[in-house]
Design brief:
Blueprint: H1 2-19, E1 55-57, E2 73-76, E3 82-84, E4 89-97, E5 100-107, E6 112-117, E7 119-121, E8 128-129, E9 134-138, E10 150-157, E11 160-162, H2 170-173
Antiparallel strand pairs: 1-2, 2-10, 3-9, 4-5, 4-8, 5-6, 6-10, 7-9, 10-11
Length: 185
């Protein structure tokens, strides 16, 4: 009886496998479901450009890996403006990609990578940078912001794009000056 039940289980398993369509040659397997991500630490100590640059276009995560979206934020900045590392770290790339200058920095103590483009780099791969240290200047061409120049600021954990504004502590995101209120008894 045990043999019959075992044989039936094997037959059912093989029948299920036979019903599964074979993979096509050259077709990559579907991506695994996204793993839960750890929160992004607020390690930034400065904006990449200016003191509170205008956000011309915000982060719009794509619905799928290759879907439409905006994988960073565009910050208004004039050509030639200094671009700064938002946090201390190590330069993992400084060069040209598709005709644009790109700088990538891995903030110390994280599994993250920040990117800045279009930037004429003033650093090299492997350089250690301090928070707010200049890593390059905004290039006059190569911007995808239309008639104005901008810096596209990106944030990645592995191959997953994240909102770079999440690196900023609340006091850097605050609009307007701080105000002290009177103490009432």
């Amino acid at each position: 009886m045990r043999y019959v039940m075992l044989r039936a289980a094997v037959l059912l398993a093989s029948a299920g496998a036979a019903l599964t369509p074979p993979a096509r040659a050259g077709t990559p397997p579907p991506p695994p479901p996204p793993a839960p991500t750890a929160p992004v630490p607020a390690v930034a100590r400065a904006w990449p450009v200016g003191t509170r640059p205008p956000v011309l276009r915000g982060w719009e995560p794509p619905a799928t890996v290759y879907g439409a979206g905006h994988r960073g934020v565009d910050l208004g900045a004039p050509a030639g403006a200094p671009v700064r590392a938002v946090a201390a770290g190590r330069v993992s790339f400084a060069g040209r990609v598709a005709g644009r200058g790109v700088v990538s920095v891995e903030p110390a103590g994280t599994d993250l990578r920040t990117t800045y483009e279009p930037v004429r780099p003033s650093v090299r791969k492997g350089d250690r940078v301090a928070a707010a240290q200049v890593v390059g200047v905004v290039e006059p061409t190569g911007s995808h912001c239309g008639r104005t120049t901008c810096v596209h600021w990106g944030l990645l954990r592995g191959e997953t794009y994240l909102d770079p504004l999440s690196l900023l502590p609340p006091w850097l995101l605050a609009r307007g000056p701080s105000r002290l209120l009177p103490v009432t008894p």
